[in-house]
Amino acid sequence: MISTELSMIQMLDPRRHELALLQEAFLSKGGAIAVLPSPSFAPPPPRHEPPPRKVKPKVKAKPEASVWLDKMAQRDIEREERQAQREKERVDLIERIRNMAETMTYAQVISQTGMARRTLQRIAVENEFKFRPAISNRRPQRTTEADDIKRAERIRGFKEIGLSRYQAMSQLGVTFKTFNHLLDKFGIDYPKARKGPEPACFDKKKQG
Q1: Are 74 and 81 in contact (CB under 8 A)?
Q2: What is the domain extent for residue 100?
Q3: CB-based contacts of 164: which residues, under 8 Å, 6+ apart?
Q4: For a disulfide at 143, which of 147, 157, 160, 199, Cβ 3.0-4.6 Å?
């Protein structure tokens, strides 16, 4: 290995001698050899590393039983909230109907709310308040003694032809109270409605 390198150096000697002669001839003619500065090494600028990121702690997954219990608890909460909202709406409705009943009749409240009369009656009974009575435009007719006598005669005629009490009241155009008052006043024994025939009964033993 050493002998090979030595032989290569010896081969370059004539070339070196030639370069030395050329350099000497160049200097003799007034030439100058400039010595260039050696290359300088500048270290790279320091790198600004970003601050380390905060690593969030890992959250352990809840077991399935715990997740199921959480869902059930959330459902119970939502159910209670819906129930509380319905109760509030019911109380608000009752209070609204109560305030309307102070100045309105059933018919007026029905036209305002669209609620059924039976529903309004139930709300009024349960919460102990009343609606304004409807004002009737019909004035009670005043009857004289002569009018009562004529009505009594007609009642006797209805009795003879066999009309029922309901039919007689309809013909006279009077109420049940007025009809009974006329019967008591003139001593009319008007028969009440008769019961229908008893249902046929068959003895099962005889049929067998």
Answers
A1: no
A2: 64-126
A3: 193
A4: 147
Does this model's pTM top 0.85? no
pLDDT tens track for 28-85: 877 666 666 666 667 777 777 777 777 777 766 656 666 666 777 888 888 889 999 9
Question: What is the DSSP secondary structure assignment for residue 201, as one 8-state letter?
Answer: -
- E strand residue ranges, 7-51: none
Q: Is residue 122 part of a domain?
A: yes
Q: Is 163 part of any domain? A: yes
Count of alpha carbons within 13 angstroms of residue 34, beta-carbon side? 3
- Using alpha carbons, select from 84, 114, 86 the residue that is nearest to residue 100: 114
For residue 190, give the nearest of 169, 170, 174 by alpha carbon: 169
Q: Is residue 99 part of a domain?
A: yes
Tokens of residue 116, six digits:
């059924």
If pLDDT is split at 50, 70 and 90, which confidence band does 183 have?
very high
If residue 6 lies in a helix (H) or strand (E), which one and from where to where?
helix 2-28
Residue 121 lies in a domain: yes
Instruction: Clarify whether residues 106 and 153 are in a common domain.
Output: no
Written as six digits, the tokens of 94 are 């009752």
pLDDT digit string (tens) for 142-182? Answer: 778 888 999 999 999 999 998 888 888 888 888 888 999 99
